Amino acid sequence: MKIAICASEVVPFAKTGGLADVAGALPLALEKKGVEVVVVMPAYACVKKAKKAKFKKVLADVSCAFIGKKIPVYFIEKEEYFDRDNLYTTKTGDYPDNLDRFSYFSKRALSVLKEIGFQADCVHCHDWQTALIPVYLKTICAGDPFFQHMKSVFTIHNIGYQGLFLKEEFPKTGLDWNLFSMETLEFFNKVNILKGGIVFSDVINTVSPTYSREIQTKEFGFGLEGVLQKRRDSLFGILNGLDYDIWNPATDEYIAKRYSADKAEEKSRNKAYLQKTCGLPVKDTTPLVGIVSRLAQQKGFDIIAEAIDDMCRMDIQLVILGAGDAKYQQVLEQMMKKYPKIISLNLGFNDPLAHAIYAGSDLFLMPSHYEPCGLGQMISFRYGTIPLVFRTGGLADTVTEDNGFIFDEYSKEALVSTIKKAVVLFKDKKKWPRIVRNAMNENFSWDIAAEKYRDLYNKVHSL
Ligand code: ADP
Ligand code: GLC
User: Fold this and answer.
1) What is the DSSP letter of 248?
2) Ligand 1 centroid to 138 CA: how many Å?
3) 347 and 273 in one domain?
4) Do the Cβ atoms of 29 and 446 come closer than 8 Å?
5) What is the per-residue pLDDT across 271-300, written as a single tens digit (0 to 9) for each?
6) Which residue range is the domain that position 91 belongs to?
7) Do residues 401 and 360 both lie within one domain?
8) What is the DSSP string of 390-443?
């Protein structure tokens, strides 16, 4: 079985969110199962900074580095498109040439497979940035014998990001205008790249069973629920795994004191360290609540903002790490100004601090309005940090009353009363250690998820 994974971000080379974690960990898990896998991604400016990576030129515009035992990652170079500091956006919004950039990447990813002679059984594409690949396979590549038996799996990590562009930009895809139709890539007179991936891929999947059902509804489908319903027989939901080599408190190089499930009490050294470095009073008896998140509408900052006064009246501390929308940065800055002794706000993308927050916090706050899978809660489990979430998507599939706190109504009131409940339980010397133990004993390893992906590739291959 030969699989080519094409993605716009891959750990350890480039990351803005969970997509990178998945695109970096899935190939490693597949390799362990005997699948022959290659990865293709753009050569952004940050790629060169990856620790321990050795790059080798393989084509005039393609270099390669290895992950796992012998998985080649191919980096497509094009200076004017990819040699930039950010992946998709600047402070003022999305790069205006994103359609040029990712049409180019998608086309070149396929031609690179041909030039290196990797005739994949299946190309596994992720999110809108690579959604044109299934379209190209069924259109401009259709006459080429090299691609004749190549199937596609398209994973939707977040249907809130569809790659929407003005109609005038359609020619940048290189596709015939007859594909700008209601059945294919047209969406309310705009170009919708994600829709192309849904329509043209052989199999679609998303990153949790609950989310695969939710996106077929008006509430969560972002306008594509009808298109997904039409393809429901080819739509699956596979819960992501977590890379337990990267996210492991017993070996984590970024944390003050390493610990494991049988010595969870040693976690408190990380708490004291986090409080100190974040300028908060060092108090073991006060529950420390952590947030590590993209600053986006999806992530629940609206109800956090409404709840903040009530929250700060309780005996808690809050450490926030976030990067993203300026709007939510301002909301958080205002909170921090109002409660400087309770809230530590850290803006930006900061991997070492993220590890320190997972290790040092008691609770992990993730009240996302929708969440396709969510890795934050799984990482928290691993670090004995108890997630507090809204019941949606992958959060509903992973968080229970035994390993966390989960509320059913998306409202400030429900959030506040659940935090109150958590604060009371935190003081319970018998029940709290039990819930920490349950969390740390959860198993969301990639081994299970990779098995399901292998079954899916087999299914698509036999179509
Ligand atoms: P999403 O992909 O929607 O952002 P996930 O929970 O699936 O949400 O994954 C988020 C990943 O990105 C996690 O690995 C999390 O630790 C990381 N992350 C999010 N924001 C930051 C940040 N500001 N700095 C460092 N890591 C972050
Ligand atoms: C997306 C989703 C998140 C998911 C991640 C990896 O960014 O928002 O829920 O965990 O992709 O699949």
Assistant:
1) -
2) 34
3) yes
4) yes
5) 999 999 999 999 999 999 999 999 999 999
6) 2-241+447-461
7) yes
8) ES-HHHHHH--TTTSEEESS-SHHHHHHHHHHHHHHHT-TTHHHHHHHHHHT--
pLDDT tens, position by position, 310-330 = 999 999 999 999 999 999 999
| DSSP-derived pairing of the beta strands 89-90 and 71-76 | unpaired
Q: Is residue 374 in contact with ligand 1, taking CB distance under 6 Å?
A: yes
- Phi, psi values for residue 123, rounded to 5°: -100, 125
Q: Are residues 59 and 194 in the same domain?
A: yes
Ligand with minimal distance to 19 CA:
2
For the question of whether the overall pTM of this predicted structure is more than 0.85, the answer is: yes
Cα of 374 to ligand 2 centre, how many Å? 5
Q: Which atom of ligand 1 is nearest to the CA of 324?
A: 23
Find the mean pLDDT for residues 371-375.
Answer: 98
Choose the residue to mutate in 26, 161, 375 for probing ligand 2, maximizing ligand atoms within 8 Å of C-beta.
375
**Ligand 2, atom 5, residue with closest C-alpha:** 18
Sheet holding 151-156, edge to edge: 56-59, 62-67, 71-76, 36-42, 2-6, 122-126, 151-156, 203-206, 235-237
The bound ligand whose nearest atom lies closest to the alpha carbon of 206 is 2
